[in-house]
Design goal:
- By secondary structure, the protein is α+β, with helices and mostly antiparallel strands.
- It has a single domain, classed as Outer membrane efflux proteins (OEP) (Up-down Bundle).
- It contains ten helices and six strands, in the order αβααββααβααββααα.
- Helix 3 runs antiparallel to helix 4, helix 4 packs antiparallel against helix 7 and helix 7 runs antiparallel to helix 8.
- The radius of gyration is 36 Å and the shape is elongated.
- The two termini are 64 Å apart.
- The N terminus and C terminus are likely disordered.
Length: 460
């Protein structure tokens, strides 16, 4: 009977050791670093080349950036720790054995000896300590998954912002080149008028000064565009990769958010959807479970044990077994448990304070993003008129000066106003789309639908 029972326990040990995930906890972590935002099948880490859309840039960043991989691996770590907590509900089994040779090379004292033993331990009751550790691990896994979701969406927003910043910088470089060309036209017109005696030499010097200044501004704008391209490349996981270009996806973040709801309602909705707040709340639950675990550590525990041994030294063969219950009662631990409980309670208080801080930050994020979208929407509606009137004024001033009817100061002023108007239009149009992304992130609604709205509608 003892031999059969021992064989059964050994088989249980072997089958448990061969299982990769017997508790199924690793399956609770999304298979992709992109979390639940996109399926794992789209994770293409190939280095992008040529023109790329905003959606492609975001996909590349979410797949290749170390931040998402770190968050994903952290979630898997928490899942493995949860598996360890579940293992406390199963018995622990161990097998020990030894082989030796004893004697003086003369029979019958010269003989082989061997010993084989099997030990089993099973915790019966520990006043909730085991359950508290399981609850803490469950909460930490929930916090890690929410943190992974938050990391993905933060990187999503960073990539969107960097992409639009690059488009803005490239547009600014184009505006600077146009301003440089206008300044050159004014310089040529002043040179021609000075040559025929209808303008003073000071006009030519002033026009040349402005033209040189526009050249410097163009050089700096092109350098800023190159820097922005490097920042986007870094977010996509390769700081050396700049062999790509960006194209403006007009549909991305072209949707107008519904601003009819009061900002207070958006804040309440954000508090129920923001993954960083969910992570903070789960951390509070984990620390509260840690308090229960620390309290249980100072209480008695009951465990059952079973042991079986087989000894054979040639002259003697014997089999023995034992079964019983252990009772452990902590009497005095040097006040260690007292301070462990105090430390756990303090950790729980810190986690609660952090949760409240995140809740306040959520409200502030929504407030800022809400009014940013409103102001950028109104500014964008007026930017087209601004450029139209500035372009007409610049054309009129240059024409009058070339005809000998105006003064150079009017031309230079009109050119400066036109360059500023074009820059303002560029910033408001792309800035509005960034503001929409920030509002979507603030209220916890930053999904793939913002990048490919037409495709998502088709799927529905």
């Amino acid at each position: 009977m003892n031999a059969r029972f021992s064989l059964l326990l050994v088989m249980l040990v072997s089958s448990a050791a061969s299982a990769a995930d017997p508790f199924g906890v690793l399956d609770r972590v999304p298979p992709s670093p992109m979390a639940e935002l996109r399926p794992a099948a789209v994770c293409d880490t190939a280095v992008p080349t040529g023109p790329i859309t905003l959606a492609r840039a975001v996909e590349r960043a979410l797949c290749a950036n170390p931040a998402t991989r770190t968050a994903w691996l952290t979630a898997r770590l928490r899942a493995a720790e949860l598996g360890q907590a579940y293992s406390a509900y199963l018995p622990s089994l161990s097998v020990s054995g030894s082989v030796s040779r004893t004697g003086d090379r003369m029979p019958p004292n010269d003989r082989n000896a061997w010993q084989l033993g099997l030990d089993a331990q099973y915790l019966l009751y520990d006043f909730g300590g085991r359950a508290a550790q399981r609850d803490a691990a469950e909460a930490l896994l929930a916090a890690a998954r929410a943190s992974q979701d938050d990391s993905v969406r933060q990187l999503y927003l960073q990539t969107v912002t960097a992409y639009f910043n690059l488009l803005t910088a490239q547009g600014a470089a184009s505006v600077a080149r146009e301003a440089e060309a206008s300044a050159l036209a004014a310089f040529k017109a002043a040179t021609a008028r000075v040559a025929v005696g209808t303008a003073i030499p000071l006009d030519r010097l002033q026009a040349k000064t402005v033209y040189t200044q526009r050249q410097i501004e163009r050089i700096r704008a092109e350098g800023e565009a190159a820097r922005m391209q490097g920042e986007l490349a870094a977010l996509m996981g390769d700081t050396r990769q700049t062999g790509f270009s960006v194209i403006d996806s007009e549909a991305a973040f072209s949707q107008t958010p519904d601003l009819s709801a009061a900002v207070d309602g958006l804040i309440e909705a954000a508090r129920s959807r923001r993954p960083d707040l969910r992570a903070a709340e789960a951390t509070v639950l984990a620390q509260q479970a840690g308090v229960r675990s620390a309290e249980a550590a100072g209480k008695p525990s009951f465990s059952a044990f079973y042991g079986a041994q087989r000894l054979d030294n040639g002259s003697l063969a014997a089999t023995s077994s034992s079964v019983g219950i252990n009772l452990t009662i902590p009497l005095f631990t040097g006040y260690r448990n007292t301070y462990q409980v105090a430390a756990a309670q303090t950790q729980a208080g810190l986690a609660a304070a952090e949760r409240d801080r995140v809740a306040n930050q959520v409200a502030l994020d929504v407030w800022r993003a809400y009014y940013s979208v409103k102001s950028e929407t109104e500014a964008d509606s007026r930017s087209a008129d601004l450029v139209e009137s500035a372009a007409a004024a610049e054309k009129l001033a240059l024409g009058r000066y070339q005809a000998g009817l105006g003064i150079l100061l009017d031309v230079l002023s009109a050119q400066a106003n036109l360059a500023q108007a074009r820059q303002t239009q560029l910033q408001t149009r792309l800035g509005l789309r960034v503001a929409r992304a920030q509002l979507a992130q603030a209220i916890g609604d930053l999904s793939w639908d913002w990048l490919e709205p037409a495709q998502q509608e088709g799927k529905r």
